Amino acid sequence: MSTSNKYTLSQQDILDEWKQVQAAQANPAQFRVLYSKYYEPIFRFIYQRTADESMAADLCSQVFLKAMQNLHKYEFKGVPFSAWLFRIASNEIAQHFRKINKNRVITLEENNTKDLEDEFEDKADLEINIKILKAVIQDLKPAEVELLELRFFEKRPFKEVAQILDITENNAKVKIYRLLQKMKKRFKKRRQ
Known about the structure:
Layout: H1 11-26, H2 31-50, H3 53-70, H4 81-100, H5 114-117, H6 123-138, H7 142-153, H8 158-165, H9 169-191
């Protein structure tokens, strides 16, 4: 399996993007370049967690409004600018669900479970195990689900997961390792 994915940018891409951010910091009209580049990924990120197109559009506009208002505070940390936007989006989503006092949606699509297919010999086993996996995920805390989504469903590098969650890269690795151990125990228990 290739380590490259749609979330991995080369160091040169990250530096080029930093120049775009600096241009937008100097001239707010230049923010349009960043908006155009990231509107769709941020919208999809929010939509996957809300399953409501209208709500996703509203939250997405809030993300970009806050990003514009706080762009002067953005500091380059060697990761894509998008990590900062995704952190804002993550906070907006959490704030929205706290406000309406509901749990957010977890979108577990078939392509997210593809990696499991190799582990099971027949389709019946796979379907049973996917049901168990969904139940295990459903029992996780929102912060754990977010870790799972960022690292495994969206296949983001640890460094970007850490940036989005505003934790160290090492902390992200530890949390993900512990989460996997917890999930394996729960999976085994439900499987019996």
